[in-house]
Specification:
Elements lengths: L1 E4 L1 H4 L5 E4 L5 E10 L4 E5 L9 E2 L10 E6 L7 E12 L11 E4 L11 E4 L3 E9 L10 E5 H14 L16
Parallel strand pairs: 5-10
Antiparallel strand pairs: 1-4, 2-3, 3-4, 6-7, 6-9, 7-8, 8-11, 9-10, 10-11
Amino acid sequence: GFIITNAHVVDEADEVTVRMTDRREYTAKVVGLDKRSDVAVLKIEGKNLPVVTLGDPAKLRAGEWVIAIGSPFGFDNSVTAGIVSAKSRSLPGEDSNYVPFIQTDVAVNPGNSGGPLFNLDGEVVGINSQIYSRSGGYMGISFAIPIDEAVRVSDQLRTSGRVVRGRIGVTIAPVT
């Protein structure tokens, strides 16, 4: 089975272990990762693996309820809820401009990264990725990578092992 998670979760790992809710554990192979979008693809070999239904982040609206699943501070299988605060957010920094983040007020903490963000229909609409924090813990703002963006990156990583992006060679310069 293929698993989409955050690149920062598995970057520079010597070995990656995936643990299911039923306590089965698998050694995962990192198929590829893209630091710019913070997306990584893992592969595990197993039977009767759980699957999720993917939703459409374009249908999300501000004020809509969402839930996050993860392991904040090592507390496995934790669920937190909140609302979508905004969509298509750019974050400060050069690399984050590749992702139109979903901003939520869902309590996301260290350990939630790479976990799913679900809508109330039980569909994955994002991958919990970042928090805005001055303390290192949740302060009311969290960000998720829209699942359609993550799937686009995942497809490229699975087929070619890298992500190709277009770029217009335009720069701004003073004209005299």
